Amino acid sequence: ERLPWGTIAVIGTTSAVALGSYYLLFRKKPEPEPEPEEKGPKVVYLIRHGQSTFNAAYELTEKDPMIFDADLSDLGKKQVEELETKCKSLDPMPEVVLSSPLTRALKTALGGFKGSGVPVQVEPLLTEHLTDSCDIGSTPTELEQRFKGSGVSFKHLDTIWWYTDSEADEPQTSPEACQRHYQQYGYMEPPLHLNARVEKIVEIVNNHEAQCIALVGHADYMNELADAITGSEEDLWLANCEIKMFEVKEPEVVVNWGDG
Fold it and tell me: What pLDDT score was predicted for residue 231?
């Protein structure tokens, strides 16, 4: 006996509802999206260059020996070899090294992180507070020849990337002109100009994608930079090839590898 058309319709509808309920009950629920991983505090290593020929000569006479863009001394080269061993034990290991373009600093950066695979980049904001002859640098062309094969690029540097005296009689458009002016009159970078550079490098570090950065530079500059990172006015005078580690969110010094 056939059922009325209406009955068949009811049975069909009921079955569809039951199947739908069964699907909703037993279907696999989507996996919740993982929460973004929280990053820890940014780690910054401050490293001073090895002893320079300027440092060695000045210690003997306490007079400026007029050594422009000073190289590493023999002792400085040994200090950099020791620094290489220290850098291998850094934890965490830097993701990038930013170095002053002055020869003594860049040779320290390349030697200290030799074979580590960590890229070394030149950052002119890290150059020393210009007070002595050794703080007058070399042109990008000269640096390219000096560091040929190092993999470091100098294309972003201006021809004269260090501080120059705006009141000089001779246009300061070459290292030779800067050297002549310094030898005749002597000049220094104003503290306000130095502080502006320090503020810019702090901003670069804070906005950098790397969570761990090594900065290789100079005594005066690192002292000012440490103040800016920590908010403390306590002096920090790094010895040659000394390393200090800072956590940017908690600015106290957490590791000290000692004198170079």
Answer: 85
- For tokens 């070459």, name the residue: 174
Token pair recorded at residue 86: 């220290």
Question: How far is CA 210 from each of CA 98, 200, 207, 234, 245, rounded to the nearest angstrom?
Answer: 11, 17, 9, 27, 15
Note whether 242 and 47 are within 8 A (CB). yes
Query: What 3-state class would DSSP assign to 145?
Result: helix
Can you tell me the mean pLDDT for 228-253?
83
In sequence order, what are the residues at sequence separation of 6 or more whose Cβ sits closer than 8 angstroms to the Cβ of residue 99?
Answer: 105, 106, 108, 109, 110, 120, 121, 122, 123, 126, 215, 216, 217
Closest CA to 130 of 81, 201, 179, 82: 179
Task: Return d(Cα 224, Cα 3) in angstroms, integer.
Answer: 94
**pLDDT score for 249:** 64
Are 211 and 42 spatial neighbours (Cβ–Cβ below 8 Å)?
yes
The DSSP 8-state label assigned to residue 72 in this structure reads B
Dump pLDDT digits (tens) for 67-91. 999 999 999 999 999 999 999 999 9
The single-letter DSSP state of residue 147 is T
* CB neighbour list of residue 213: distance below 8 Å, 6 or more residues apart: 42, 43, 44, 45, 94, 95, 96, 97, 98, 205
pLDDT digits (tens, 9 = 90+) for 152-191: 999 999 999 999 999 999 999 999 999 999 999 999 999 9
Rounded to two decimals, what is the model's pTM?
Answer: 0.82
Helices (H) and strands (E) in the chain, counts: 8, 6
Return the closest-CA partner of residue 146 out of 138, 155, 136, 157: 138
Q: List helix spans (H) across 27-132.
A: 53-61, 74-88, 103-112
